[in-house]
Protein 1
Amino acid sequence: MGFLALDVTRTGVVLRKFNERGTRILERFNTHEVGMRRALITAQRELARDDDLTEVRANVQEPELAQRLKHCVTTEASDGGKLQALADAL
């Protein structure tokens, strides 16, 4: 089993994949609204593609960025279950 992690810093968003084989950076995005949306779309695509991925976790360093990410999840996520848990955690 594995999971995806969104590391959100002032300078960007890094989407990582964690599984039994280790950690891999999937893609980097900016922190503007378009970058956040693209990060979530990529996360949704990875969740749909890989059944071993169970959740998406976030490490957000600033409250403003956490709120922006939460807004993007609630407005953009078509996968209600796994990404909604992310929004609830933010």
Note: The longest helix spans residues 33-49.
Protein 2
Amino acid sequence: MTVPPITIEPMHSMYNQQIGQLLVHGFRGKFQTLTKLNDGELVLFFEKLFDHVPAEPTSQRMVALQEGVVIGTISIKWKTESDRMQIFPAWENLHGFGKWNLLKMFIGLSLLVHKPQAGECYITDVVVHPDHQGKGIGNLLLQWAQDFAQAQPSLDKLSLYVAGKNPRAEQLYQRLAFHTQQRVSSFLSHLLFKEKKWSYMVKRLK
């Protein structure tokens, strides 16, 4: 039996809903701890966020496609010249979620923002659909990120954060030559996401 090929392609607006679904699959625990939004509402929130927030010039989201269906996604960013703040859409573009839920989502998302340093290619998120986990999709996405960073003269390392409650993920990245450079604790992260401890992991490329 022939397995349909998997391609890694840049994000397109036609995939916004599917990417929103993937992010909910991967991070629903955090955002449902933060708000009272259900899965469908969270998907719609992320879809509208992609619709109304322009992509930064020093960031890139890719999707893993199989027969036109998004089965995985990865987002990276690197140091900006201006280090400008992330822009969130106007309230009217996100009506229907409740202002208190939106405020908590914006605070939570801001807390998760990491500002890369010079030479750093930061992996903001990488998610594989539950039906396709264990098939090497995550490795394909991470290899894309590594190939991208190695092709940029100014970038010499990949980095990411792993939640302390997910030691299996940390072990997985260690097998891929990531090293835990720092362990941090955040009271605010604990308050919002019930995630106090995080591991900052780095893979040197050059």
Note: Helices lie at 16-34, 39-52, 99-111, 137-150, 167-175, 187-193.
Protein 3
Amino acid sequence: MRRSELVREVEWAVVDCPPRDVPRRLCRVLARGLPADGVTMSLLTDTPARQMLCASNQIATDLEEVQFTVQEGPCITAAETGEQTHLTDWDTGARQWPLFTAGFREKHPDVQGVHAFPLWFGDYVLGAVDIATRVPGGLAGDVIEEAAGAVDAVAQALLPAQQLLLEEDEYPPWEPADVVGAHWADTHRAIGVVAVKEEMNTDDALALMRARAFGSGQTLAEITADILRT
């Protein structure tokens, strides 16, 4: 599929599409149009308020969850720098993102590359799209160029979903519901609980939760659920 065809697929995917269904459709378009074994997209990925919008399968969910838990990885870097971030050499990746590479490779040792693309809107970054692939050496250069063009189109298509997120009083209506809830209201509730209990500020409370998750081998979502059950 040529780049222009994939961009058109992205644009057509959201025609007459309710905003709450946009992320899922876009994930499907990217997963179908690229040699991708997992696609995930999230908003505001350089802040504790990051919000996962879509994960195309379990590989994608794990890719997002590990990064959300340890707060490092290609997606985080792409959102922070506004630049494409490509992980194809896992030894080099282990030096840059040691917690992420250890956690994700344990779950999916067959994934050969992770490619993260920032979601730009005007002069600021909305978030990032991650593409995981089993292709040896990761995506080829022409495919990366194709993906970058498609992600630019995705950023525009996501604007209605971003507005819905800002206006939604309850959990955003996206799937998987348990992970989305943990990335949104549940996490912030749990941070407040820990901050009060431990008499610390919210940044330190979040850091403590992440440390507990990493030390126990759990995800931040699981730690969040444990805190809110007690």
Note: Residues 4 and 24 are 21 Å apart (CA to CA).
